[in-house]
């Protein structure tokens, strides 16, 4: 408004625009290096794939980095953001770049028997002991997500069975969307995704009607229609609501 008799405009103060935080174009090791301390030098980035699929295994990848002196690896991102051909190209580079790496799997039958959290723990434990068997002993784990499903003392839900036997006993730190910002976790996601996709392509040869070479066992309309027509295979998670 203009005050009567003055003709002078009233100036209003604008609040400074809030700065928007943008995620880096590619993940770095900045978060990982924040864990460097006496006695902590090797960090294992961990990520899973296949959790929400209707068929096939759930797979857990591990990529270990040395917090003291570890270079970056170009082009690696969360596997969901990469084209299949880029994941295939990067997978051997990730294995060469990492101090240690592995992928563990839990089958659809194990998912039915243990529940998804128990199966994730089993797959992660298999990958963990593969890393240990290679002579690499990570001091801690950086796990994508908000729930520590890897440690044996963590109870997933009343419907999940706790696998017995050896398990990962290293400290586990969780971080939501770690695969977007943490290079070790993004690298682990690439390893897990490539390994699981290869399994699903092999299973497609056995059951081509379900389109696993394309949908990788996830709940597409084509996949659900095939289940309605043909029924589930031994590789489907029959404890789930498939339809």
From TrEMBL:
Domain RNase H type-2: 41-243
Cofactor: binding comment: Manganese or magnesium. Binds 1 divalent metal ion per monomer in the absence of substrate. May bind a second metal ion after substrate binding.
EC number: 3.1.26.4
Record localization: Cytoplasm
Cofactors demanded by this protein: Mn(2+); Mg(2+)
Catalytic activity: Endonucleolytic cleavage to 5'-phosphomonoester
Listed Basic residues bias regions: 12-21
PROSITE patterns attached to this UniProt entry: RNASE_H_2 (PS51975)
Region (Disordered): 1-24
NCBIfam families per record: PRK00015.1-3
HAMAP family linked to this entry: RNase_HII_B (MF_00052_B)
Biological function: Endonuclease that specifically degrades the RNA of RNA-DNA hybrids.
Family: Belongs to the RNase HII family.
Protein name stated in the entry: Ribonuclease HII
Naturally occurring in which organism (per UniProt): Arthrobacter gyeryongensis
């Amino acid at each position: 408004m203009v005050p009567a008799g003055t003709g002078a405009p009233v100036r209003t103060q604008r609040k400074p625009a809030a700065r928007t935080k943008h995620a880096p174009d590619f993940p770095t090791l900045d978060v990982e290096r924040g864990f460097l301390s006496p006695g902590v030098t090797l960090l294992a980035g961990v990520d899973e794939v296949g959790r929400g699929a209707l068929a096939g295994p759930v797979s857990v990848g591990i990529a270990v980095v040395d917090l003291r002196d570890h270079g970056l690896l170009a082009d690696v991102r969360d596997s969901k953001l990469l084209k299949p051909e880029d994941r295939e190209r990067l997978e051997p580079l990730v294995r060469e770049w990492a101090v240690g790496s592995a992928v563990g799997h839990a089958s659809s039958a194990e998912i039915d028997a243990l529940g998804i959290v128990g199966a994730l723990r089993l797959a992660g434990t298999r990958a963990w002991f593969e890393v240990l068997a290679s002579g690499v002993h990570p001091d801690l784990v950086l796990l994508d997500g908000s729930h520590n499903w890897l440690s044996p003392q963590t109870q997933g839900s009343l419907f999940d069975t706790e696998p017995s036997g050896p398990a990962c006993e290293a400290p586990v730190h969780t971080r939501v969307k770690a695969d977007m910002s943490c290079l070790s976790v993004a690298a682990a996601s690439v390893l897990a995704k490539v390994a699981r996709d290869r399994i699903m392509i092999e299973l497609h040869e056995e059951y081509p009607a379900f389109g696993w070479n394309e949908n990788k066992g996830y709940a597409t309309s084509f996949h659900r229609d095939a289940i309605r027509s043909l029924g589930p295979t031994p590789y489907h998670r029959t404890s789930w609501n498939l339809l």
